[in-house]
Amino acid sequence: MKQMVGVLLLALLLTACAGGQAEETQGSKQPETSETDEKAAEQRNGESDKETDEESEDKNSQSEADEHKKDETVVANAVEPKYEITDTWSFKPIDQANEQVALLTFDDAPDEHALEIAKTLKELEAPAIFFVNGHFLDTSEEKKVLKQIHELGFAIGNHTATHTSLPTLSKEQQKQEIVGLNDKVEEIIGERPQFFRAPHGQNTEYSKQLAAEEGMLVMNWTYGYDWNAEYQDAERLADIMVNTELLYNGANLLMHDREWTAKAVPEIVKGLRGKGYELLDPSLIKTP
User: Fold this and answer.
1) Tell me: the pLDDT tens digits for 6-23?
2) Residues near 233 by Cβ (< 8 Å), separated by ≥ 6?
């Protein structure tokens, strides 16, 4: 009996030792498994970071390529100047451009009839420059009209803030008249005028300097009639604008935001084209 009990105790003791060894063996392998997993995780993280860096580089490269393509598009869409202004305020062709052209311009906009004139010209596919005064841009409605004229595709020129004779003003006042108006126009249409016409054609050395600094072409005119009482009639005005002896290649026609002028526009355009004149697109004029 004692021997049997002893055998049982010995068996239990051997079983316990074997279990302890198994637990110890399993415990010694756990850190190895954890370390392996950490290395694998680090490798995965490294690969992930590498992929992120590569994706970032690809995006940067694509962004640079898109920007370069955009710049190339802008250059490609830039219009090559075909005409330049002369000492007599007319225009002469550069290289092989058509000589028989005439430019339409309208001062004192946008008063009461500028938008009507612009819509008529748009229907006739006739380009023109609208020279604006700052005192016609005081209200939200006036600003809206200017924006509409610009959105119809017409060039906007600077005709000073208050239409005051520039030689009577100080340099600071002239700057406000010219640069101040450019600032206002840019706020409304998103770009600054490229053409400048002084009130009554009275430039000063300083006004010409300011225009150059602002990248504007100083422009007077070759002829105009609609401010004379004799031609404050649509029929008479249309006749003189087309049949005057002052009409010649490159002529720079001056008109104003007036009721009789608005009514005369269709006949003026028709008459000029009937004589073989192409209406000059302001975007083809060379500016500073």
Assistant:
1) 434 444 444 444 444 434
2) 260
